Amino acid sequence: MDSLPPLQTAFLFIIPLLLLYGVVSQHRRKLPYPPGPRGLPMIGNMLMMDQFTHRGLTNLARKYGGLFHMKLGFSHVVSVSCPEIAKQVLQVQDHIFSNRPATIAASYLSYDRADMAFADYGPFWRQMRKLGVTKLVSRKQTESWASVRVEVDSMVKAVAANTGKAVNIGELIFTLTMNITYRAAFGSKNDGQEFSKLLGAFNLADFVPGVRWIDPQGINKRLVKARQSLDMFIDKVIDDHMQSKIEVNGCDETTTDLVDDLLAFYKEAANATGNEDLHKPIQLTKDNIKAMIMNVMFGVTETVASSIEWALTELMKNPDELVRAQQELASVVGLNRPVKEIDLEKLTFLKCTLKETLRLHPPIPVVHHVTYGDTEVGGYNIPAKTRVMINIWALGRDPNSWEDPERFRPSRILDDGAPDFKGNNFEFIPFGSGRRSCPGMNLGFYALEMTVAHLLHCFNWELPDGMNPSELDMSDVFGLTAPRSSRLVLIPSSRLLCPIV
Ligand code: HEM
């Protein structure tokens, strides 16, 4: 039989495909949006923006379901808080849901998304992520892991010098994680907590373009101040790096850190593309480096610190679990020496305690993604550019997935078939899942384990002023992260039979 000419063959395939596309998009157009609270004309659900916290969204989900829809001005917003839908969004249709919202705060604080955490999914993000992983969080990057050990040791010494006194342990923990970050990547200090509040805030101006200049919530002024402080800090870090390069005459140093590598990466990019702007690298290079530093500041400082503080708080509130964790340390390590890295893998109950903490207090309670194109989830229409809020906090407390979900019970993690946090069990995703999941998971959990193991093994802990465990404040503040609303204060006493220092 004669074969058809190429043009006809092409039409034979293309026409059915076009018809199929037409039917699918027609079908999708007919699909409803997910259910949700009714909005007002033009402004949609803007008057509800104060409810867009992990708790507020959980309450709304009780009424409207695990996938609900709202409008903010002309923008579509959906909230996800059931495991089946989270799986669709983060795994099955990951490619459509992997962009990040370009909010005013994220764009401004990340130097126009010149980073890994706020860049849209694509080649630039891939490059930045590769660099961050290889130079900072990979197990081969021994400086990062060593920095955890060095800083934990110095924190333990600081606590040991204050036994018998009320110690603001929450403050010490934040200092510890800040020191780990800067030791790992750059070697000095800056305050990141204001950044978290700004990044987590729902800003009217993100949804109503004209409002940006009026700034009804006073966010612009705070953004400028926060970025100026980062600018000053990081200018010095970059200048120091450039200076040390000049001093060694730019030749191959064997140890480079994240800043050196970012500088080198941009020089290479400039040479490869011949792009004029890249040949004037200072502005562009500094912006990218600053943005990456901002990512690391949050990645490590806020998330790890709030997990450590919550772990200690839950253990103080549940003395039986504290006793069990300390007994395990005594039997695995013995009271004649401090904990070593090699002990960690045998400390099963400690691991469960930390996982249970991450279930109840995921440091990033709600993660934000944006759809790249139109799609359909659970029989509902999700248009392109929809803002998707995945409520990790609600997933970890879902009564359909967890028995007695509000209770701190580490041993549940030992149950047969208990979920793990690696990103395949969607009722427990403190590090997210899929392409945008946390690249610092192993380093973050290691810092958490090392710190809590040392604090529980070296010291016994008491609440100050005869406080009862049930009186402990368990409230949190909502930003990009959700730390305790007040810092934890405890009285340490020595526990080891050998000197700590
Ligand atoms: C207890 C510790 C930590 C927790 C619970 C945590 C959690 C998370 C979560 C939930 C996300 C968002 C995932 C998503 O959008 O789907 C994330 C992203 C990220 N984390 Fe972590 N994190 C931790 C530690 C770290 C550490 C130590 C670093 C190291 C620098 C880090 C760096 C990042 C970065 C850069 C992103 C953005 C990734 C991207 O968008 O491609 N995190 N993390």
From TrEMBL:
Its cofactor is heme. Belongs to the cytochrome P450 family. The chain crosses the membrane at residues 6-24. The keyword DNA-binding does not apply. It comes from Tripterygium wilfordii (Thunder God vine). SUPFAM superfamilies: Cytochrome P450 (SSF48264). One of its GO terms (molecular function) is heme binding. This is Cytochrome P450. Pfam families: p450.
